[in-house]
Write a structure and sequence with these properties.
Strand content: 5-15%
Radius of gyration: 21 Å
Shape: globular
CATH architecture of the largest domain: 3-Layer(aba) Sandwich
Structural class: alpha/beta
CATH class of the largest domain: Alpha Beta
CATH topology of the largest domain: Rossmann fold
Bound molecules: (2R)-2,3-dihydroxypropanoic acid
Number of strands: 12
Largest sheet: 7 strands, parallel
Order of helices and strands: EHEHEHEHEHHEHEHEHEHEHEEH
CATH superfamily of the largest domain: NAD(P)-binding Rossmann-like Domain
Number of domains: 2
Length: 321
C-alpha cells in the first residue's frame, strides 16, 4: 500500500508529479483559507507525511495522534509553527525550504525599505485618488537611502543577501547576530555591533531573526525608544519578535520616523488593526518569498523533502538531523 500524504494548502499540481508516483496525495482544496484544525488532526492521524504552511500548528497534540507520521515538510524557511524538539523525540523528520527563497525575500525586504523611506505606497495612492494638483518642493518628500546606515538584526542567509543589496546603495552596514560572523563581515564589509548599538546608530533597522524564545518580543518599548527619531524600522521575519503595542506607541509619539512590516503577530490582520492607521507605516501581507518562480521552487523542494524520507534517503533540507 502506498503511503498517504496530506498537503494543507493548494499547491501547483505539477510540483508534486514525482511525489504522486510513490504516494497517495490529498490536498486541502482551499487556496487561501487554512485547513481547519479538526480536519488537520483527522488527516494527520492517517498520514505518513504532511506538507504544511506556517499557519498550521504541528504540536504535541497532533503528533501524539499521528502514529504513522514520519515527515513534516514546511513550505517556508521558518518553522516556528512546529514543535521540533518534540518531533525529534517522536522520530519525525522536519524539513523546510531554505536557499530557494533567499534572494526573493531579500528583494522584498529591500523593496519594503525603499517603499517606506520614499513613501511609495502613499504616493501611489495619492495619484490614484486624484490628489495631485501640482509639483511642490516638499510634496511626498521621503528620506534618503544611499550613504545611510543600515542595521541588520539577524545575519542569516537573508541578512547577507540584504547586505549585498545595501552595498550597491553605498550604505554603511552594521549587524547584530547571536554569534559573530567574521568571514561574512570581511566579505561584505560589515561591522558587528551590540543590539543596543545597532538600534542607537542605524537609520534603518531591519529585523531578520527567526522567532524563538530568545527573539520573541525583542522589539519592545525600550528598543523603539533607543532608536533614532529619524529611524525606520522594518520587519520581514516573524510578527512575534515585535511588541505591536510598543510599535504603535513609537509611531504615535514620534520615537521613530516610520515602519515597514511584512509580518504580524496574528495573520491575517484585519483592516481595522491599530497599526494600519499610521500613514508612516507600510504594511504587506507576508509576501517575502511570493514570486511565481520561488513559490514553485519551494513547493518542489517541500515535495522532494517528503519523497526522500519516504524512500529512506536524506532529504535535501532537514531541520532536525
Ligand atoms: C518563510 O519562508 O519562513 C516565509 O516567512 C514564508 O514564505
Amino acid at each position: 500500500m502506498k503511503p498517504y500524504i496530506f498537503i494543507t494548502r493548494k499547491i501547483p499540481e505539477t510540483t508534486m508529479d514525482e511525489l504522486q508516483k510513490i504516494a497517495v496525495v490529498t490536498m486541502w482544496e482551499d487556496e487561501f483559507k487554512p485547513v481547519p484544525r479538526k480536519r488537520l488532526l483527522e488527516e494527520a492521524a492517517k498520514a505518513t507525511g504532511l506538507l504544511t504552511l506556517l499557519s498550521d500548528k504541528i504540536d504535541e497534540e497532533l503528533m501524539d495522534q499521528s502514529p504513522n507520521l514520519q515527515v513534516v515538510a514546511n513550505l517556508a524557511v521558518g518553522y516556528d509553527n512546529i514543535d521540533v524538539p518534540y518531533a525529534t523525540k517522536k522520530g519525525i523528520t522536519i524539513c523546510n525550504t531554505p536557499d530557494v527563497l533567499t534572494d526573493t525575500t531579500a528583494d522584498l525586504t529591500f523593496a519594503l525599505l525603499m517603499a517606506t523611506a520614499r513613501r511609495i505606497t502613499e504616493a501611489a495612492q495619492y495619484i490614484k485618488e486624484g490628489k495631485w494638483t501640482g509639483w511642490a518642493p516638499l510634496l511626498l518628500a521621503g528620506t534618503d537611502i544611499h550613504h545611510k546606515t543600515l542595521g541588520i538584526v539577524g545575519m542569516g542567509r537573508i541578512g547577507e543577501a540584504v547586505a549585498k543589496r545595501a552595498a550597491g546603495f553605498n550604505m554603511n552596514i552594521l549587524y547584530h547576530n547571536r554569534s559573530r560572523k567574521e568571514e561574512v563581515e570581511r566579505k561584505l564589509n560589515l561591522s558587528y555591533r551590540s543590539f543596543e548599538d545597532v538600534l542607537k546608530t542605524s537609520d534603518y533597522v531591519v529585523c531578520l531573526v527567526p522567532l524563538t524564545n530568545e527573539t520573541k518580543d525583542m522589539f519592545d518599548e525600550n528598543a523603539f525608544q533607543t532608536m533614532k527619531e529619524s529611524a525606520i524600522f522594518l520587519n520581514a521575519s516573524r510578527g512575534g519578535v515585535v511588541v505591536e503595542k510598543a510599535l504603535d506607541k513609537a509611531l504615535t509619539k514620534g520615537w521613530i520616523r516610520g515602519a515597514g512590516l511584512d509580518v504580524f503577530r496574528e495573520e491575517p490582520i484585519q483592516a481595522d488593526h491599530f497599526l494600519l492607521k499610521h500613514a508612516n507605516l507600510v504594511a504587506l501581507p507576508h509576501i517575502g518569498s511570493a514570486t511565481l518562480e520561488t513559490r514553485m521552487q519551494m513547493a518542489r523542494l517541500a515535495c522532494k523533502n517528503i519523497e526522500n524520507v519516504l524512500q529512506g534517503l536524506i532529504p535535501p533540507a532537514p531541520v532536525n538531523g
